[in-house]
Each structure stands twice: as C-alpha cells, then as structure tokens.
Design goal:
The protein is an alpha+beta fold. The protein contains 5 helices and 8 strands, in the order ββααβββαβαββα. Strands 1-2-3-4-5-6-8-7 form an 8-stranded mixed sheet, sandwiched between helices. Helix 1 crosses helix 2 (51-68). The longest helix is centred in the first third of the chain and has 18 residues, at 51-68.
Length: 197
C-alpha cells in the first residue's frame, strides 16, 4: 500500500501546540524521529532499517485516519506549524488481548522537558472521553522510561499490569485510565517532565 494523502481533517489547537492528521510529506520527519537512537532509547522495538519501513508505519496511521477519522497526530508548535516536534495521540489497537484506544507519543529530543507530551495527552484524553465516548484509554511503556511514566501518571493513568511483548526484553508496563476516573479529575495545566517530552 502506498502513502495516500488524507482528507483535510481540522487540526486541534491546544495552548501551545497544533495537532493535525499526518500527511505523506511527514515521512522524513517521522523517519528522523524513529531512527534517532536518543528518541528510541526506551523503545522495545528495533529502530527502522529503512525509510520504506517507516513509510509502511505512516501508511498504517493514515489508513486509521481514513477508517476512523482520528489517529496519531503530527505535532508542531502553533507558531511554527511546519516544524514537527513529534507524533502522538490515539489509535485503536490490540492491547493486552483486547481492542482499545492506545495512547502514544514520541518527540524529538530537543523538544523534551517542555510539557508538550502532557499537553498532547490532555487533548487525546478529551478526544477519547468527550468525543469518542470511550470506556478507557491504555498506554504501554517500558519500565525504565520514567519520564513517560510520570507524564502518564500526572494525566491520570494508573499502572494496571505488565505485558511480555518482546522476547528477551523486560516486560512492558500497561497503564489505563477509565472514563469514570477521567470524569472526576480536575482539569489542571499540563506539567513538564524533566528529561522527557
């Protein structure tokens, strides 16, 4: 399957960020992030071996947008919409043996420590619970990835268990936030996590 341009779904502005559907033209930015050893240091998956591999990943993301009208966003500053900081958001995936909304984010290292992941996560949870009427949102993270874990915990996700996803690697941790817990949470400004996004 080759990359296809997605429909022009409206971008989601937050206080500082612009969250939009990815486009085929984002391939180079995605490849740079996914093949950066620093941004990949907590990923259990191997770094991509080629642009074709990343093209398939981006194509899958675009297909999800076509099918569901939401998915992982391309993330930029509102004042600099052409310079992508990273990618993240929600996609329907099989997690822990069930289909659910998976929360994901990955940013360029130079964007870490600014609270961008927390800001994007708030927008993703609002999408999940206020627009999609989801029962829960899941996230999978490596145990050593303390910056991402703190970002998830500050957003209200709770540790639910572990998943042995990759042979020879430590089991990933499964986080979850249920709709009822989200409804009870105060809407606080996002906090930056040192050494993380």
């Amino acid at each position: 399957m080759s990359l296809q341009a997605s429909d022009p779904w409206p971008a989601v502005p937050t206080k500082r960020l612009l969250l939009r559907a990815p486009q085929p033209a984002d391939l180079e930015a995605l490849y740079e992030i996914q093949s950066d050893p620093v941004s990949q240091r907590f990923s259990a998956s191997p770094m991509p071996s080629s642009r074709e591999e990343v093209m398939q990943q981006l194509d899958d993301w675009l297909g999800h947008w076509q099918a569901h009208e939401f998915g992982y966003w391309a993330i930029a500053l509102r004042e600099q919409p052409e310079e992508l900081l990273g990618f993240g958001g929600l996609m329907l995936r099989q997690v822990a043996g069930r289909q659910g909304l998976n929360l994901y984010f990955r940013f360029r290292p130079q964007a870490w420590g600014q609270g961008y992941a927390a800001e994007m996560t708030q927008a993703a949870l609002a999408l999940a619970f206020e627009q999609q009427q989801a029962d829960a949102v899941l996230a999978v993270v490596q145990p050593a990835n303390m910056p991402s874990r703190k970002t998830l915990e500050r957003a209200g996700l709770r540790l639910k268990g572990s998943l042995a996803n990759v042979p020879g690697q430590p089991a990933d941790l499964l986080y979850e936030i249920a709709a009822a817990h989200y409804a009870e949470m105060p809407r606080l400004p996002p906090q930056a996590t040192p050494f993380g996004a």
